[in-house]
Structure formats: C-alpha cells, structure tokens
Amino acid sequence: MSPNRKSRKGAHFEDVGRKIDRELKQIVDYLNDEVVPKVRTESSSALRKAAQQLHKLADFMDEHRQRPS
Questions:
Q1: pLDDT at position 4, please?
Q2: What is the DSSP track for 5-60?
Q3: Does residue 54 lie in a domain region?
Q4: Which listed residue, of 1, 3, 16, 64, carries a Cα 20 to 30 Å from 48's Cα?
Q5: Measured between alpha carbons, how far is 32 from 25 in angstroms, rounded to an integer?
Q6: How far is the CA of 3 from the CAs of 7, 15, 16, 47, in angstroms?
Q7: Is position 69 within any domain?
Q8: What is each CA distance from 29 to 18, 22, 54, 56, 68, in whole angstroms?
Q9: 67 pLDDT band (50/70/90 cuts)?
Q10: Using one digit for the tens of pLDDT, what is the confidence trace for 17-33?
Q11: pTM over 0.70, yes/no
C-alpha cells in the first residue's frame, strides 16, 4: 500500500471519528436537555400521586382501626 493511500485512510478514519464524536455529543445534549427534565417532572408528579394515595390509605386505616374491647 502506498504512503499516500495510508494517509488518505488515516484522514478518513479521523473524519469518521470526529463525526462520531459530534453525533455522540448531540445525543448526550438531547438526553440532558429533553429527556432528563421530563423524567424528573414526571417522576415528581408520580411521587406526589403516590403520596396522596398513601395519605388516603392511612386515613382509611385510622377510620377502620379496631377498637380495643
């Protein structure tokens, strides 16, 4: 293989590597900017709903507690 051909292949692999780096950065940015905030919002909402249900269950248990005889 000629030295010129090797340098072209090396340059090609460097270009591919840079493109992969850019694509990965875009994916990470998307996850950080779009996915993570939505998951946090929906998670906190789900926790609030679960807390409300647990509160209702505690009230129900208090209302139906067997009285000592």
A1: 72
A2: HHHHHHHHHHHHHHHHHHHHHHHHHHIIIIIHHHHHHHHHHHHHHHHHHHHHHHHH
A3: yes
A4: 64
A5: 10
A6: 6, 18, 20, 63
A7: no
A8: 16, 10, 37, 40, 60
A9: low
A10: 999 999 999 999 999 99
A11: no
Token digits for 11? 């340059």
CB atoms < 10 A from the CB of 27, how many?
Answer: 10
Helix (H, G, I), strand (E, B) or coil at 63: helix
Q: Please tell me whether residue 4 adopts helix, strand or coil conformation.
A: helix
Q: What is the pLDDT of residue 66?
A: 74
3-state secondary structure (DSSP) of residue 64: coil
Please identify which residue in the block is written with the tokens 């009285």: 67
Tokens 């139906």 correspond to 64
Domain containing 53: what range? Answer: 25-61
31 found inside a domain: yes
Model pLDDT, residue 3:
67
Confirm whether 12 is domain-assigned.
no
